Amino acid sequence: MWTWDFIHDRTAEGRPLKWLSIVDEYTWECLALEVERGITSRRVIDVLAELFRIRGVPKHIRSDNGSEFIADAIQRWLGLAGVETLYVEPASPWENGYAESFHSRLRSELTDGEEFASLAEAKHLADAWRLEYNHRRPHSSLGYQTPAEFAAGCAASVPVATLPPLQQHSRKPEDLPLTVTQPILS
């Protein structure tokens, strides 16, 4: 199961930054940390399509029920991919503890302490922070392994012959629609 959410920030000159995070709830890996001025449904679908191609298709994605996550285009695309969406109750952030914990760290370690001069700087620092988080920071909940080490150990413990295609689904990422023909909501 993956979890995703958005947070908002601003550059030094006051222009908006919108951050999309996607975290694997089992391995604690930050699979994506995208930052843009705004993130449209089409961009979310592009990020998901790339993750599905690389990581396989999760059975579920958990989020709040914000407009970004209930957008028709995203819902249709996830439905075609066979991904079930799980929504936390409104005003119940504890139901999405992985996202809340991750964003607490992201805020305290990066966004609250930085004044981003530009979008390019925010993107660069987001990439560096994600690599640090995944590859250099042990987590007590993972037996003091990094998320990347834990994930590698999980993959190594399952014989390749028994792995189902694309983790939990038989749909291949190349079979998924990478474009949306309906109007896109941002």
What are the defining features of this structure?
disordered C terminus, globular, alpha/beta, five-stranded mixed β-sheet, single chain, 38% helix, Nucleotidyltransferase, domain 5, 186 residues
Helix- and strand-based class? Answer: alpha/beta
Strand arrangement in the largest pleated sheet: 3-2-1-4-5
The termini sit apart by: 24 Å
Helical residue percent band: 25-40%
Main β sheet profile: 5 strands, mixed
Break the fold down into its secondary structure elements and pairings.
Elements: E1 2-10, E2 16-24, E3 30-36, H1 41-55, E4 60-63, H2 67-70, H3 72-81, E5 84-87, H4 97-111, H5 119-135, H6 147-156
Give an overview of the whole structure:
It is a single chain. The protein is an alpha/beta fold and 186 residues long. 38% of the residues lie in helices and 18% in strands. It contains six helices and five strands. Strands 3-2-1-4-5 form a five-stranded mixed β-sheet, sandwiched between helices. A hairpin with a 5-residue loop joins strand 2 and strand 3. The chain is globular and about 45 Å long. The C terminus is likely disordered.
In short:
This protein is 38% helix and 18% strand.
